[in-house]
Write a structure and sequence with these properties.
Keywords: Oxidoreductase. It comes from Sulfitobacter sediminilitoris. InterPro entries: FAD-linked_oxidoreductase-like (IPR029041). By secondary structure, the chain is of the alpha/beta class. It has a single domain, classed as TIM Barrel (Alpha-Beta Barrel). Helices cover 39% and strands 16% of the residues. The strands form two sheets. It has an eight-stranded parallel β-barrel. It is globular and about 50 Å long.
Length: 313
């Protein structure tokens, strides 16, 4: 869902002054129960998550190729102890075999009390073992046997060139399969997506899911505040589609070129659309903190997200 290099930007710290808050009832409703993504090496730089994130926040732990499972589990254990809903990635293409998958699940459960995960293909071009996609992970039955209560899967509002060179036929078929999987199992599921910058294609894609009979709720990926040039570079690397024009247009305005990007416009438009369409299937926001965890957490709080409880409260 996201390239290894993009998550390496998590420790970037924005220095420019923040824009005026956009808080409003509609935006507060959309930002309620937002989630955020971290990696073990960036989590290590956060002294106390409780000073940044509301208690109960769902925190995804990105598993990049080469990261030892011990580091993943240790991060999960820490976050769980701090009162967060921990959701580690299970990237199919870097999991060697069924025994490795079973070992990971057992470690997360036994050491960190994890009962949920994001299942995705992963960013590597060639599988390192017997799995190539998240459906194969689900078909093992190991998550059900272990009592995992929630499974999230990847979504791509603007397509995925690694899966479909043109169009979205394969991605759409995979989502239909996963939707059917939910109906025949006890798993509580949702779609967590790649980030995009324009609400219009996001809304169109979400509506197309409903038209196709896919009822999984959508947790829409949003890039947190970060330097504009950085976002353009890695949005291209990640295959972000038409919404990339939002950043390119901003880059042409010399008055905005040196200012950090903030997801103000896309959040506002999605929030207003949801307020006008209560059955809209985008239910949550999932942040990719490309400009730093602290920067993203502060932005969320300033713009309507639930304030974090102080660490000493």
């Amino acid at each position: 869902m996201i390239k290894d290099t993009i998550m390496a930007l998590l420790n970037f710290r924005r220095k420019e002054a923040p824009a005026a808050p956009i808080a409003g009832a509609e935006i507060e409703a959309l930002l309620k129960d937002y989630s955020i993504e971290v990696m073990p090496r960036t989590a290590e730089k956060v002294e106390d998550f409780r000073a940044l994130l509301p208690g109960g926040t769902r925190v995804y732990i990105a598993h990049i190729e080469g990261t030892p499972i011990e580091e993943m589990v240790a991060t999960a254990k820490r976050l769980n102890a701090d009162g967060y809903k921990v959701m580690p990635h299970f990237p199919a293409r870097i999991i060697k075999d069924r025994a490795t998958l079973a070992d990971w699940i057992a470690r997360y459960q036994g050491e960190a009390d994890v009962r949920q995960g994001l299942l995705l293909a992963g960013g590597v071009a060639q599988p390192l073992g017997e799995f190539s996609d998240s459906m194969q992970l689900m078909e093992t039955g190991l998550f059900d046997e272990a009592g995992f209560t929630r499974l999230h899967v990847a979504g791509h509002p603007e397509g995925n060139r690694d899966i479909d060179a043109t169009g979205t036929a394969n991605v759409d078929a995979a989502l239909k399969w996963k939707n059917d999987f939910q109906t025949r199992t006890d798993a509580e599921m949702a779609i967590a997506t790649q980030f995009a910058f324009d609400a219009k294609p996001i809304i169109g894609w979400a509506d197309s899911l409903k038209e196709a009979g896919i009822s999984l709720p959508v947790h829409i990926g949003i890039a947190g505040p970060a330097k504009l040039q950085t976002l353009i570079k890695f949005a291209i690397a990640c295959g972000v589609g038409p919404s990339l024009k939002v950043l390119q247009k901003r880059a042409m305005d010399v008055t905005k070129l040196l200012l950090p990007y903030e997801p103000t416009d896309v959040i506002r438009e999605l929030a207003l659309h949801k307020a006008a369409n209560p059955d809209f299937n985008i239910t949550n926001v999932h942040f990719f903190p490309l400009g730093g965890i602290k920067t993203n957490a502060n932005w969320a709080i300033e713009n309507g997200g639930t304030s974090a409880v102080p660490a000493n409260a």
